[in-house]
Amino acid sequence: MSEPEELSVEINGFSCRVWQKGQGPKLGFLAGFGGLPRWIPFLDALARERTLVVPSLPGFPGGERGHTVLDSHLDWVLAIRQLLHKAGLEGADLAGSSVGASFAAEVAAIWPASVRRLALIAPWGLFDEQAPMTDPWAQRAPDVPGLLCADPEHWNQLKAEPEGANSPEWSIVQTRANEAAARAFWPLGNTRLDKRLPLIEAPTLLICGEQDRVMPRRYADRIAAAIAGRTEITTIPGAGHLAELDKPDEVAAAILRWTT
Amino acid sequence: MKLMWFHLMPYTELPDDFREKHPSVWVDIHSSLFDPRRAHLMYNDFMDELEFAAECGFDAVCVNEHHSNGYGLMPSPNLIASALARRTTDTALCVMGNSLALYNPPTRVAEEFAMIDCISGGRLIAGFPVGTPMDTCFAYSQNPSMLRERYYEAHDLVMRAWTEEDTFAFNGRFNQQRYVNIWPRPVQKPHPPIWIPGGGSVETWRWCAETDHVYAYLSYFGYLAGQATMDGFWKEMDRLGKDRNPYRAGFLQFVGVAETREQAYKLYREPAEYFYGRCLHVDPRFAAAPGYTSEATQRAGVVGQVAQVARMRRFDTLAREMDAIVEKGYVIIGSPDEVAAQLRQVATDLNVGHLMLLMQFGNMGKDLAKYNTKLFAEKVMPQLTDLFSDWEDRWWPQPMTRDVRASLTPFRQSAMAAQ
């Protein structure tokens, strides 16, 4: 696993890290809950076949405190739109996970020409009273890894403080990622994305971890049914909510297949 | 110094096995544990106790706000304060307070506090807590990432609503109001004294210094644990060039007084163990909400009270039995002379001019609460009131003089006669 090229773009006066790696047509990826404090095998799997571009969401690792000026959902969506534009992803294929998937869907809905094909891993943005999404914030610390990943060790690997990291800054950055997600999705994860789903024309792949303990499967069914464009749902055995952490190769393969 | 009588209004009948069978006293405490018919009696007992404390001569009676909470039955302390405004005469009414960001629009707080100030003839102390994560972010679903900014903005809005003479438009980041013009207006000018209950964050201390509000440290863990926080507060005041007027600060302390220390130990053991065993049983899931604690405070390593309890539980240092509760200073017990000597020491060491005393705690019944209150008023209070007499308390209510205040109609006698 080699390191990506690291660039940065400015959104609302805050710097956002943009990772880039690989060759071929561009594919964007927006991180899931917790963000990307480090480069992960899943990104390498995508970068083997495509020019992978990974802009950090405001407030997520690499995204400074950019979330603190986003007060409304409109602020968020506009910031993500600018982020994708400045990262050179205009008109490219776009993938995302949980929080990032929700924003990818928003952009595809509101600016249909800006996204070619869409791949969404367990997107947030809806709330089903019959099958409530698990509260990702009201959790005891030891329960979080097993909530987000089928194998808790995969979450721990993502979040483990590297040797020589500046403590407590590392943990502050991880808390900030949770805060940024909360700022956009508190308290229910419901941004009323369902109202905008019918505007999505891009062919959309929905990816579900078979062992997703945050979001019941019916969310994917509802989203697929509401999207105007062609949709497909694929379930990844042995994967949890952040399926890309549990099964990097399988999830990457599904995305590459859909966007090729 | 000022001696203030504080009530949390705890539900007094949580079951013995509460800690084993129920995950949390707060947020998702089960409704089956709440019997409204029993609560009817509790509320009336608690209000009797507050009125009794006022009659006994405490400088203030204090109430506060909690939501979905088994140890705090006052979602609206303003309801209790307005009843107290009618059943007390000279005692200050300390509402500690209204969590500003929970009110939409926040001018609701300006209005209700102004009502209490008018009804009471200017006896209100207006407390503005941010509110705990349990109350604000979980029970009331406020966004933790915006809570503080909303709180500061709401504070500015309330201050303007109280002080500006003309109708104005408020164009805030979170609140927009075309016509702000509250009726009624507070009796106290320019506004009632403002007290800020807070944890140990440097930002709060600075803000209190800047706005000239009282900082009140409402810890359940007594003077020993509170020393470091209050030392930090005073050092920051020194740094900012503020004087060490002890009335800049308030501090909460549990107290149980009896004829002898042995008797006090016996009398207050059960209510103290009930409080520290059951009432602080909060699920760590709700101890923190991301963004609630500022990054500066995270860097300083300061944690909130319930996060502190979670940490104490993890390391098994939370005292739940009377010996340790007393030893750690959570509750001060003893004969009147012993309690007076200890409180004098505490007030001096912490340099706190406003002592907020919890004299009903846990499942303490009305008789014992009144005994504690009366004995304190008769034998402890006189030994303390002279403390800090060299300092001016600029943060105390300025009521209307008695001769121009309404006289209360003794409704009870006429009601009894009618029966």
Summarize the structure.
Chain A has 260 residues and is an alpha/beta fold.
Q: Could you characterize the architecture of this molecule?
A:
The complex is a heterodimer of chains A (260) and B (419). Chain A is of the alpha/beta class and 260 residues long. Chain A has a single domain, classed as Alpha/Beta hydrolase fold, catalytic domain (Rossmann fold). Chain A has helices spanning 41-47, 73-86, 99-110, 144-148, 152-159, 169-185, 218-226, 243-246, 248-259, and strands at residues 5-11, 14-21, 26-30, 51-55, 92-97, 115-121, 204-209, 231-236. An eight-stranded mixed β-sheet of chain A has the order 1-2-4-3-5-6-7-8, sandwiched between helices. In chain A, helix 7 (218-226) links the parallel strand 7 (204-209) and strand 8 (231-236). In chain A, helix 1 (41-47) packs parallel to helix 9 (248-259) and helix 2 (73-86) packs across helix 3. The longest helix of chain A is centred in the C-terminal third of the chain and has 17 residues, at 169-185. The two termini of chain A are 23 Å apart. The mean pLDDT of chain A is 97. Chain B is an alpha/beta fold and 419 residues long. Chain B has a single domain (2-418), classed as Luciferase-like domain (TIM Barrel), CATH 3.20.20.30. Chain B contains 15 helices and eleven strands. Chain B has helices at 18-21, 36-56, 77-87, 107-119, 133-139, 147-163, 202-211, 222-239, 261-279, 295-300, 305-314, 322-327, 336-350, 366-380, 411-418, and strands spanning 2-6, 60-63, 92-95, 124-127, 168-171, 176-180, 194-198, 214-217, 249-257, 331-334, 354-358. In chain B, the strands form two sheets. In chain B, strands 1-2-3-4-7-8-9-11 form an eight-stranded parallel beta barrel, surrounded by eight helices. Chain B has a two-stranded antiparallel sheet with strand order 5-6. Chain B is globular. In chain B, 51% of the residues are buried. Chain A binds chain B through residues 67-68, 71, 137-141, 168, 171-172, 175-176, 178-183, 186-187, and chain B through 137-138, 141, 143-146, 173-174, 283-286, 289-291, 295, 298-299, 301.
